[in-house]
């Protein structure tokens, strides 16, 4: 019934445009479905790794993951004013015996650089999940410089970079990153490719 | 030419000796976990007595209050005390919003405020120009805030620091602009980290 009504709605607007909108809506539903799938897979991996704190500056690509953590009574979620705050929170969490994860966009990596001295010099486990901008079908030129600099700046300060460009690879990459961070005391950023996230609707 | 705000009562310089102020503050710390901001607050806390339950920052300016937040969230049954300077806390101005929203009941921030960037040549900081960090924290919704200027006032607050609170607290302690001889803790962050975690019963790492 719902499906029938939506077809009527699209066709009533304008039959030609209506068909195009139906195709777009299907693509959009598919993109949302894919995002929910990888996000719920990543959430499951991080829960299995016993992550107890999550901090974030929002990115559209992280929406589902942020919602899943925020609804989880066993995880403390903190919204940040700037991403470097989350680096310091992760250090404090580890001092107190808890594992944490920081969700951010590539532009926020630039805000973190000096604060990353702390986990690097103290060999604190650090796991950052970075949604990429500025690299695949980007419409905003202002995202390009930091997108280009994300990997090299992280590596310059001593953070190890891993990357996933296909939805099917992401959960496994995060699982490997979590092991490296929490069990081998490494500082890891997982870059989530913009191609995987899909084109931002504007 | 440096522009100045109209000077408020909180921009009146402090007269307390910082080492004495910090020692007074820590006298009743009981089981409190302490995190220090880089520069003089790290030296002040170390001078009051090196302990396993101190975590000293030597860098990462702007990180002290947020290390305190992560720790407080991980250890809700213990009280966490962050002792930092005005310059360090000013770099983490936004952290007061983050901490207020997080609203931990076991986190207190004490800003040892000498109105200057003491480590770099005593340039006047924003608090010297009238910015009032206790008022900022109060506006953000901290459960308790105050500016302390005397040893009696510090002693009064020191006695309630280890007690339960309704939410995050922030106290500004006005001290004289001076650089006492440095009292340096280990600069090996891995050592200090492992010592701190061992105190809480966690393995090295």
Question: In words, what does this structure look like?
Answer:
The complex is a heterodimer of chains A (202) and B (205). Chain A is of the alpha/beta class. In chain A, 57% of the residues lie in helices and 17% in strands. Chain A has one domain: Thiamin diphosphate (ThDP)-binding fold, Pyr/PP domains (Rossmann fold), CATH 3.40.50.970. Chain A contains nine helices and six strands. A six-stranded parallel sheet of chain A has the order 2-1-3-4-6-5, sandwiched between helices. Chain A is globular. With 205 residues, chain B is of the alpha/beta class. Chain B has one domain: Rossmann fold (3-Layer(aba) Sandwich), CATH 3.40.50.970. Chain B has helices at residues 18-26, 40-47, 64-74, 86-91, 95-102, 133-140, 151-161, 189-199; strands at residues 33-36, 54-56, 80-85, 107-113, 116-117, 123-124, 144-148, 169-174. Chain B has a six-stranded parallel sheet, with helices on both faces. In chain B, strands 5-6 form a two-stranded antiparallel ribbon. In chain B, a hairpin with a 5-residue loop joins strand 5 and strand 6. Chain B is globular and about 50 Å long. The model of chain B has no long low-confidence stretch (mean pLDDT 95). Chains A and B meet through strand 2, helix 4 and helix 6 of A and helix 3, helix 5 and helix 8 of B.
Q: Tell me, briefly, the overall form of chain B.
A: globular
Strand content of chain A: 15-25%
Report the biggest beta sheet of chain A as strand number plus sense, adding barrel if it closes. Answer: 6 strands, parallel
Structural class of chain A: alpha/beta
Output the number of helix runs of chain A.
9
CATH architecture of chain A: 3-Layer(aba) Sandwich
Q: How many β-strand runs of chain A?
A: 6
Uncertain runs of chain B with pLDDT below 50, 5 residues or more? none
How many individual domains of chain A? Answer: 1
